Amino acid sequence: MLGIGKLLIATLSITTVTCYHTSAQEVTGELGSPSATTTIDSNYLPNQPTRFGGEIGLDAKSSKPYWPPQIVPKKGAPNILLIMTDDAGYGVSGTFGGVIPTPALDRVAKAGLRYTQFHSTALCSPTRASLITGRNHHSVGFGVISEQATGYPGYDSVIGVNNATIGEILKQNGYATSWFGKNHNTPAFQYSTAGPFDQWPTGMGFEYFYGFMGGDTNQWQPYLFQNTKQVFPWVGKPGYNLITDEADNAIDYIKQLNAVASEKPFFVYYVPGATHAPHHPTQEWIDKFKGKFDMGWNELREQIFANQKRLGVIPANTQLTDWPDSLPKWETLDAESKKLFAHQAEVFAAYVAYSDHEIGRVIQAVDDLGKLDNTLIIYIEGDNGTSAEGSVLGTPNELITIEGMQMPVAEQMKYYDQWGSDQTYPHMSVAWSWAFDTPFKWTKQVASHFGGTRQGMAMSWPARIKDAGGIRTQFHHVIDIVPTVLEATGIAAPVMVNGVAQKPIEGVSMAYSWDSAQAPSARKTQYFEMFGNRGIYSDGWYACTTPPAAPWLMGTTSMPDVVDGYKWELYNLNEDYSQNFDLAQKMPDKLHEMQELFLMEAAKYDVFPLDNSILERLLVARPSATAGRNEFSYSGVVSGIPTSNAPSIVNRSYTITAEINIPEGIGEGMLVTTGGRFGGYGFYLLKGKPVFLYNFVDMVRFRWEDADVLTPGKHTLVFDFKSDGRGFGKGGTGILYVDGKEVDNQKIPNTIPALMPWDETFDVGVDTRTGVEERDYQVPFAFNGEIEKLTVNLQP
Question: Dihedral through CA 461, CA 463, CA 469, CA 475, nearest 10?
Fold first, then answer.
């Protein structure tokens, strides 16, 4: 019997050897010991299990244990701190000539290099998708933001398993990976607790996520997630601000990691929401900039331009591009407008400086642990040019201008003392945005011109980059960051990840530039496209379309044929850094050559079909829990459903029916709501009386209310709304019924045209975010009765 057992054990051992193999490249320690480590060949991830190298007998005494070696990066591989801010053009930071101090960015630049020809895609989530994958934004489904996704490979907002992120690659090679701040790379139709979660940060290789999912969020009361769970750290904490909270969380993570596994390198992806609207700095920072922008946007532009020449971050022969006729010059404004606009810029500048300060705390935490020398820091100021989404006048509520509307200066002045507080969701005039993109033309959203795509970027790694304080002029793009990180860490771009063949990395490493300011650009060609505006770079030449409509009009104007209706421009960037001298008329053959090159690049990277619609794409049907449904039923308390997975009442007729049971005494609380302080609706009981409140982007509130208090017991409440017809923001007639009796009837002239607030949620029986009418109630305003059934019926 014993002989049979030994034979069986031997057979099992042979089977084990033939089924598994090791792909170890560098081993430390004795193989099989608990402390043994190995690097791997990262071409095929995950690494195949190593064979068992011990001995197995009938009992432990006659056996020898063997531990698989822990996977680690190559010796000396650096920590990676990848930082990117939001909506900040080339002329924002003091590091690149701006008037706003950015000492954290200065610190990175002085310890390393500044890059003066580094580019984004012109829009936030497309840039971010390129940044974490090393591939062009259309190649990974992010031709536009997810909220405008359409059913084409370049535009579906699904990064996909064949585009493994740098987080996934580094994680499987032994790095601790984390993500703090803005996401906006998960399909908007997958934000709910129903998942799937493979396109969330934790499903894309980031072991820890602390941040918000969409394009922006209220920094005072953020729509915040820790991994895949919504959290509310701001509740009960006066003075809370997400910018500080993100830094605290990142610092704590880095310290905890060091305490537990000090030798394990980290990859921290740190991307705060600043300086995307809402501009929400603390009052302390706002006070620092009082009076700093009284000179106005035209003089600001001149100051930035002079600073840029002095710092050497633009060539000496650079020309300052013309001020556009579509924007007013400062001297033409009245005193009240100047006061308002100057304060808008003060709050924006405070937000820039505040965010940079908190970033500096994260960098200092790395230094305090003695890890700064071997940390590659990449600090990108902005994911696109400064935003034009505040319109010509600016706004105390971004939702107003995103919907294609404006608020007059006199009305905005009512918010002057609250600008930047939790009572506003503010954005500044596009004239400031144009100035902060100095010396270039245009702004965020415009991919054809560098005002939309040129970003200040600094990179340091003291152990490797020795030309401290140097300037690099090579032409590069955000897709070049992943291959740079891979070269720095000694990790090969994988050909297969989790059983799926990978698309090739489309970026090129920038590491060659570390040792040579004169080295020619490794990037020879790069296309640009956003909303039909196009650009193509080729070895110093640049051709692009002329934007047919300003981005601050938010797609409310008619657009030309996207293929043949655009004018083209041509620039020699070797002689014309700022795109000031259009050579299209002088060199038609060169222009034609560049246009043909764009078509080839566009075909290669899934840019087609071109589409210059904006608002229309917000309303396109997408896969979600709501797709194809017109009736939704709920009972009890349900909260935290993102608007993309909730019944949408925008631009349609609808009926909301609440079958409720009121307790003894007075009924009180929220029945159903979407939105909050800055727009949305709520159906609730206030001191026993049914109320339906429609908050039209915080500009006017329409109210339906019963004059009578409901008695205890069962009741059926109905709000029925009949739209005036098809189209954006049509008005309509709302009728409130109680137990079959009409109690209030009102016609309203307008409804929200395109979007409910993206950082609010759909809640039944409670209000978890901000209230739609804070004079009536304070959140959470839980209903004190029972919701037996709540139904939302939508007209097609």
Answer: -50
